[in-house]
Amino acid sequence: MAVATLTCGLLAACSNGSDKPTLNWYINPDGQATLTELAAACSTDDYDIEIQLLPTGATDQRTQLARRLAASDSETNLMSLDPVFVPEFANAGWIAQWPEDLAAEVLDDDVLSGPAETVRWDDGVYAAPQWANTQVLWYRKSLAEAAGLDMSQPVTWSQVIDAAASQGGTVGVQADRYEAYMVWINSLVAGAGGEIVSATETGSDAEVEIDSEAGRAAATVVQELADSGAAQPDLSVSREGTSLPFMFEGPGEFMTNWTFVYKNYEPTDGGAFTQEQFDDLGWARYPQTVEGEESRPPVGGIDIAVGEFTDNKDFAFEAARCVSSPEAQKQLAVNDGLMPSRQSVYDDQELIDAFDPSLLTLFQESLESGAPRPKSAYYNLISGAIQASWHSPTEVDPDSTPADSADYLRAVLRSEALL
């Protein structure tokens, strides 16, 4: 009895002492305070929404949700999904397909094309876009000026690495063995005109394409950074947060990172950064893999899905629409720098007041021209195989890594090798 009481205390949907159901909403930690406020605001006389916190990493988030849903857990009502996991969860029958009338509402013409595509699978809609994410090149203006790098023009990875090294600065990336490393590799390959895999609709029979000129161009960038004086000391374990302190230390850095960075450095009363430092923060389009070829920035974000096994599916759809509404998206953007998936929200005066207009334009352009990761029910295997074969970044070799990773990925997809 003691164990049962403790379990229900940790998971509010066991019982709330009344007939009013509680919908568990599993969220990732980004924007946690705002999401908690949204859960309260979107609760109604018919149901309450209770926040359940997922781990920090996208792969760990997927694992926790997959374990629950594979067991047909009826208390996983709402979930915040990294867009790359929507196909897998939909294909497995773990998340509910949206009825046509509700699907048309959450995917109207106001939704940007990139985020809209992430929630579709096999002619159905399986989630509502909540916020959209992309990466830009953040940099210290004084560092770029000292290096003589014209940031009003497109820049390449090689130019950025050379500029940083020439002044004793660094280049910040995400190269730990986790999902964000796959994000970097995917954008490097796409920026050279290639793909990691194609024909993903065939599942495990997808065509592996990474052993290509584009794959070698991507590996060249990784090798160039790893071998340069601009590599940060923690390169092989670097994550979104580890390169943030380098921006205003010494000469500074160039850093590819997500939209939250602007709010991270924004001066506040008693905050860590001054107005003078903030004024030295610049932003530009994601670097080109190959000079003259348009870069393909990463695309991410969060989609809101409804658990297939919930006993309160109608309520869950209603709650999902509320927490992904234009007003909800505006709050996440203004408070946390998590950008909207809807065009109209970018035109809201409150958002315009909260961000530099040129940055809002850059975010939208990056989302529209970005490189989504492979859309596949087998995405977890694809990502895991690439992470394993390209890590550590200090060992990446253009002459061998793309070919080796292609062989390994084919073997994993054919169940001839384990991750």
Automatic annotation (TrEMBL):
The keyword Cell inner membrane does not apply. Gene3D superfamilies: Periplasmic binding protein-like II. Keywords: Signal, Sugar transport, Transport. This is Multiple sugar transport system substrate-binding protein. PANTHER family: ABC TRANSPORTER PERIPLASMIC-BINDING PROTEIN YCJN-RELATED (PTHR43649:SF34), ARABINOSE-BINDING PROTEIN-RELATED (PTHR43649). The lineage of its organism: Bacteria, Bacillati, Actinomycetota, Actinomycetes, Propionibacteriales. Belongs to the bacterial solute-binding protein 1 family. The keyword Glycoprotein does not apply.
